[in-house]
Amino acid sequence: xxxxxxxxxxxxxxxxxxxxxxxxxxxxxxxxxxxxxxxxxxxxxxxxxxxxxxxxxxxxxxxxxxxxxxxxxxxxxxxxxxxxxxxxxxxxxxxxxxxxxxxxxxxxxxxxxxxxxxxxxxxxxxxxxxxxxxxxxxxxxxxxxxxxxxxxxxxxxxxxxxxxxxxxxxxxxxxxxxxxxxxxxxxxxxxxxxxxxxxxxxxxxxxxxxxxxxxxx
Length: 217
Ligand SMILES: Cc1cc2nc3c(=O)[nH]c(=O)nc-3n(C[C@H](O)[C@H](O)[C@H](O)COP(=O)(O)O)c2cc1C
Known about the structure:
Bound molecules: flavin mononucleotide
Number of strands: 4
Strand content: 5-15%
Number of domains: 1
CATH architecture: 3-Layer(aba) Sandwich
CATH topology: NADH Oxidase
Shape: globular
Order of helices and strands: HHEHHHEHEHEH
């Protein structure tokens, strides 16, 4: 597969089939994504992977824990300025429209949001942590790791959904994976086989035109 094909094919998958992901495939993804660059080659990513039995245990454990924690970082700036605000709004509206959930259907929206908590039925997931000492440059390195992993997943016939959602359940996740106090949870990534005919997986989000985000001098 060419890189551009993987870039174009990668989407956030929000419905997975029950088909398992092998431990070898998961280990391969986590390992190969570490070929991502990082400033000074610091490699600030810390990854905890769950699959099969450990995923089943995690699901059981999560059900016994507080449903929501105060996130340890701001997922978005407190008042998002334009054009970012509109981008975010459009993405949410398109997602609910794909599912036929109207603006007034608060329950429908809540239910779709709640699917985050079941990893959209994915059989595997990783959690991305970073040392609390690290700053914006290293968080950006973690992003490169994430995208590399997500593109490799496409090449290997797998789908992914990055989930900052887990920042609102960081205490439960951290208790389960055993991450030390010096590490902070950034996000989870659900991993599995996309359910091809699930309406939610037909969502294709917009991108701003080139002229809106790039200046060529
Ligand atoms: C770091 C990160 C965290 C995200 N967190 C969530 C999440 O918690 N739940 C969710 O449904 N989508 C989440 N997304 C998916 C974004 O909404 C998605 O990437 C964006 O709308 C663009 O769509 P695409 O991934 O299909 O191209 C996240 C994406 C990233 C990169």
